[in-house]
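hey so i finaly got around to running the thing on ABC transporter substrate-binding protein from Pyxidicoccus parkwayensis. pasting the sequence first so u can double check i didnt mess up the copy paste, my clipboard has been acting weird all day
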Amino acid sequence: MPFPALVRSAGLVAVLALLAACRIESAAPASGPVAAREGAPSGDVWVYTSMYRHVLDALDPLLKEKLPGVQVHWYQAGSEKVASRLEAERAAGAVRADLLATSDPFLYERLAREGAFARYASPNVLRVPRSLVDLDARYAAVRLSTMVLVHRQGTTPAPSSFEELANGRWKGRVAIGDPLTSGTAFTWAVFCQARYGDAFFTGLREHGAIVAGGNAAVLQKVESGEADAGVLLLENVLAAKARGSPIQVVWPTDGAVVIPGPVGLFSTTPNPVAAKAVLDVLLSPEGQRLIVEKGDMHAVDPRLGGPRGEPGVDALLERAQPWTPALVEQGLTRGGDIKESFTRAFSR
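ok and heres what it spat out for the 3d tokens, dont ask me to read them lol
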């Protein structure tokens, strides 16, 4: 799954070039963008993130233990809201964030092209599948969310693919997120539009698909019986099942949509030493384990299993549609057109 433009070959940093040949289970690069630490990390670090609050609460004690001299401040909101705040600060020339950790791969690629990120390859990134890191060392995934099919038990037979949602078999009984307001729904829409064209949106509309808003709304509509099937984040499904929800995961035969949640270090940070140390903790085995156990998301560390008994990252990537450079370009340059196409289909 070549994670976006991560497949660019130009300007590879020396240490990450090793990833082109193999996955390195443990290694400590001696040079390149892994800057030498100048004293113990200390001071304030601001992280703008869409990670769930309860995951941040779980990460706080670990960060205090590993980095006692660093005060980590979170600005937590949905990816779209974080992006809006960031853009306003960039326009004003006053970016407060040291690190960005949201779930919008297209935003990271754009910011990277605009030179917003400093290059930094954490030693812990060397364990990560090469398809999940930017080989120019401007950002790397720290967590993986996954869009899957969901089906309420005891109703109509479950759909087997995203494509089937638009064929009429579940007429009026399908709930999807709104790509105009939900970043994860937008990424899913980019994949579906690239594979099935604008006709996919038209088919959804003609067969009465319910545009529910965000993932929480989709879950509510399927759980309540307003819909029998839907498209939802795996982490939401697993958490719902754990509390007894009558829904089940269906892995789509046309491939799940994995949405990497990267972290990037802003070039404007006034405290790069501490910011890099925080990034290292997020990618550490302890940090990755918290992301799995508290967030029900997949870690990028292949040594860890997936959430609630699911297989780990390698098996996940085999179940997923690949990120390609062409798809990244489509999301970057035609995102507005895709949203407009969706809007046209559902306004008829």
